[in-house]
Automatic annotation (TrEMBL):
This is Cytochrome P450. Coiled coil: none annotated. PANTHER family: CYTOCHROME P450 YJIB-RELATED (PTHR46696:SF1), P450, PUTATIVE (EUROFUNG)-RELATED (PTHR46696). GO terms for molecular function: heme binding; iron ion binding; monooxygenase activity; oxidoreductase activity, acting on paired donors, with incorporation or reduction of molecular oxygen. The lineage of its organism: Bacteria, Bacillati, Actinomycetota, Actinomycetes, Streptosporangiales. It comes from Nocardiopsis metallicus. Keywords: Heme, Iron, Metal-binding, Monooxygenase, Oxidoreductase.
Amino acid sequence: MAVRALTGHDVIMEALAHPGVRKEARHWRPWAQGEIPMDWPLISWVAPDNMLTADGDRHRRLRTLVSQAFTPRRVELLRPRVEEIVTELLDAAADSGAGTDPVDLKAALALPLPMTVISELFGVGAEHRDTLHTLIHRVFDTTTPPDVAAQTNADMLALLAELAEEKAKNPGDDLTSALLEARAEGDEKLSQTELVWTLILMIGAGYETTMNLIANAAHALLTHPEQLALVRSGEASWADVVEETLRWDASIQYLPLRYTAEDVTLGGVRVPKGEALLMGFGAAGRDPEQHGGDAHVFNLRREQRGHLAFSHGPHFCLGAGLARLEGTTALEALFSRFPDIRLAEGEEVPESPSIVSRGAARLPVVLG
């Protein structure tokens, strides 16, 4: 099956704004004709019934129900809890990484921080978090075998349906309970399928992408000591670190998929109706036409011209503010507490196998 990849900033912006480019898979000819098997490795990006795969009024309805948890005010109220979790994780890392013993920074900080925050926000109990992490990681791992991909899709649906059932019986002060309450409210109600897939989207996106943001930013600073010096001297801020990392090393490299609901012309190229488009957000972040001739360089003094790490338009990431909060909080605390932190010598920093996300499988460091 043919999929067209869009990699330039301008052509992606054009596609995101084009009324003939949609998110619902029914517009994709192979999907509509039943040619995409349920064990396709990217099935969890195409089959869901949530706001990531919805258009128009339906997308607005679903987004409105969830957006209440991600207003700037609600995000700011989470700051003390985020700071508390970061302190706890760094305490544990210090205990395990005494002296020169390497510590996997991804496992110690980048993964558990967003997983804890988003789990508490949606009321996911600690007993489910390891399983949820495993399932979501398989969704982003595009080397997952077909039979495992199909089973992962089914297991995620079952796990989040179980969570919804638990919250229906014992509601709490969490977003899952709030969404369940909204199911019974007139025209805004959620179907059971929409509810479960919305939970999968928000929990998965809420931790995997922020995990990679924190790890990618830490790795960038450790491999660019002159840029780290700018932050420590006050010439650049931790917000600058987060924005430049999002541009230069985006957590989401390619986002499947959008579809042509009619014949369209993008970047001067005619694309027939019924085709699939892969948005190359990572490549757009290094597009010299948008970011200058040194777009390939990690530079905290750069004048930001607008990146697409959180997408753009109606599907702009709801959790962008929370991701930025977690990223700046974690990085500032990490490099302040461990001023001598460095990459562990002789240790590899392997990438996670994915065309969707970009991040280290592990990030071994010596805390100092």
